Amino acid sequence: MHIDPFGVEMWMNAHENDCDHNLAETCVTSLTLEELLHLSGRNATALSQLLPLKLTYGAIEGSDGLRDAIAGLYAAKTRNDILVTHGTAGANALVWAALVGPDDPVVSLVPTYQQHISIPESLGAQVTKVPLSAADRWLPDMEALAAAVTPATQVIALTNPNNPTGSLIDRAGLEKIAEIARIGQGGAGAWVLVDEVYRGSAQDDDGMGPSIADVYDRGISTAGMSKVFSLAGLRLGWICAPADVLQAVSHHRDYNTISVGMIDDHLATLALGARDRILARSREITRGNLTLLSGWMASEPALNWVRPTAGTTALIRYDLDMPSEQLCLDLLAEEGVLFTPGAVMGIEGKVRIGFANDPAAMRGGLPKVSAFLRRRRSMTQT
């Protein structure tokens, strides 16, 4: 089976450990185990609960306590609507494997996380890409989406909040997508797969935003502990979906997962029990960093963006006459600052910047980017 190389992951693997200021990071600054215990109202003695834990496979679907905690992130779901996976990436891969095959029509809103293009393509699906536009503030053109969906459409896929732009589709927008999806599969309704790994990062109110699983009866939500919960090292995610989807997914999961680690399950349950405090910490970091980034963007008139309303990344257009990958390589070499080039996401002429890392990285890195841009502009003017 052929699958395209994963551009973003290859870029990060090659460069994220060799920079002074990581402004490509997408996870809110990771928690230490000590910090997790503190936010959970525990101390180190809580780890003693792990000592009698027999390290078997554990509950195949995820422990009851963990699935109850995950279900609490949705409006009216129970543990029976949840299946635990190896990260959101594992959740997405399983859903695609379970739902599509050769020649199945799929619609993906782009730009997006590459899984939602390359995996269905690798399975032989016919993927129609519906582009988002900065002119629409990176929100879907519903007429264009409706034109792309046919009675044969199997899945409509998107990220919400969007990666890489940071746009957020509100409940009314999700309801419109659900309305469009209902003509799919001959009137049964196309599945709507929404990668919600950045849910909880909205810039207003409590940050949560709506979930497709609470809006549409054929909505599938994938998410995990990596981004807003600051626990990427647990490699723990989930699928919230109707029972027939979970059953189909389970058949594939038996071949490549069996169960997640019991220690990961335990710590994720602990974290979700303290979700209000963890999410408050994440909001403080992302909202503070976005304020810093917005001030910097205002001082760089040659750069252009749509200010994110959620997520942990922004897509920035630059005015230099050079490919995005070369720009990012030169910036890294000269200033030690890491961005993600738009080229690895199929969006040339732009770079992705993350605003979820330690604020010190942003305070230290942005002036270096300004110095780099000044040098490059002066070189082109001489």
How would you describe this structure to a colleague?
With 382 residues, the chain is α/β, with parallel strands linked by helices. The protein folds into two domains: 7-32 and 276-373, Aspartate Aminotransferase, domain 1, CATH 3.90.1150; 52-274, Aspartate Aminotransferase, domain 2, CATH 3.40.640. It is built from twelve helices and 13 strands. It has helices at 7-15, 33-39, 64-71, 87-99, 115-122, 142-148, 171-181, 243-256, 262-273, 275-298, 324-335, 359-381, and strands spanning 21-22, 82-85, 105-110, 126-131, 155-159, 191-195, 219-224, 237-240, 304-305, 313-317, 337-338, 340-341, 350-354. The strands form three sheets. A seven-stranded mixed sheet has the order 2-8-7-6-5-3-4, with helices on both faces. Helix 7 links the parallel strand 5 and strand 6 (191-195). The longest helix has 24 residues, at 275-298. It starts with 6 loop residues before the first helix and ends with a helix.
Topology diagram in text:
Blueprint: H1 7-15, E1 21-22, H2 33-39, H3 64-71, E2 82-85, H4 87-99, E3 105-110, H5 115-122, E4 126-131, H6 142-148, E5 155-159, H7 171-181, E6 191-195, E7 219-224, E8 237-240, H8 243-256, H9 262-273, H10 275-298, E9 304-305, E10 313-317, H11 324-335, E11 337-338, E12 340-341, E13 350-354, H12 359-381
Parallel strand pairs: 1-11, 3-4, 3-5, 5-6, 6-7
Antiparallel strand pairs: 2-8, 7-8, 9-10, 10-13, 12-13
Helix pairs in contact: 3-9, 4-5, 4-8, 10-12
